[in-house]
Amino acid sequence: MTAPDVPAIPVRLARRPVIGGLVVPWITARTPDGRYRFGNVDYHRQLEALRDRLCQTCGGPLDPARIVFAMRDSDLRAFISHEPGMHPVCAAYSASGCPMLAGRISHYRATPLAAQLADLGV
Ligand SMILES: [Zn+2]
Question: What is the CA radius of gyration of the chain?
Fold first, then answer.
């Protein structure tokens, strides 16, 4: 097994937490003990980002003229995005750093949240 590529962190994301060389997106959910759950979205931050037009990666305000959406083919057909937008630089970083967007994995962890929390004794 080879180590995944770790892209350089853009200045815009320099203040975000980093795990394994990768920036933790602003919208990433956390467990009750504070650990990040990559691939899982914090519901309240998702709503905040959609309502206030914030970038899901850095949490900063978006420029309405330059928003990038990561969309599935089915979302494109319906012209709907269930995920908040991103700054172009944050989207470029996510596309190269996120194992799912970069195509290095095809699915997120299959363990249900309840089982993960039970493992933590929560
Ligand atoms: Zn951003």
Answer: 15
Distance 90 CA to ligand 1 centre (A): 5
What's the rounded Cα separation, in Å, for the pair 31 and 117? Answer: 8
Q: Tell me the sheet residues that pair with 86.
A: 68
d(CA 37, CA 13): 18
Secondary element (H or E) of residue 28: strand 28-30
Residue 105 Cα to ligand 1 midpoint, Å, equals 23
pLDDT in tens, 46-104: 999 999 999 999 999 999 999 999 888 888 898 888 889 999 999 999 999 877 777 77
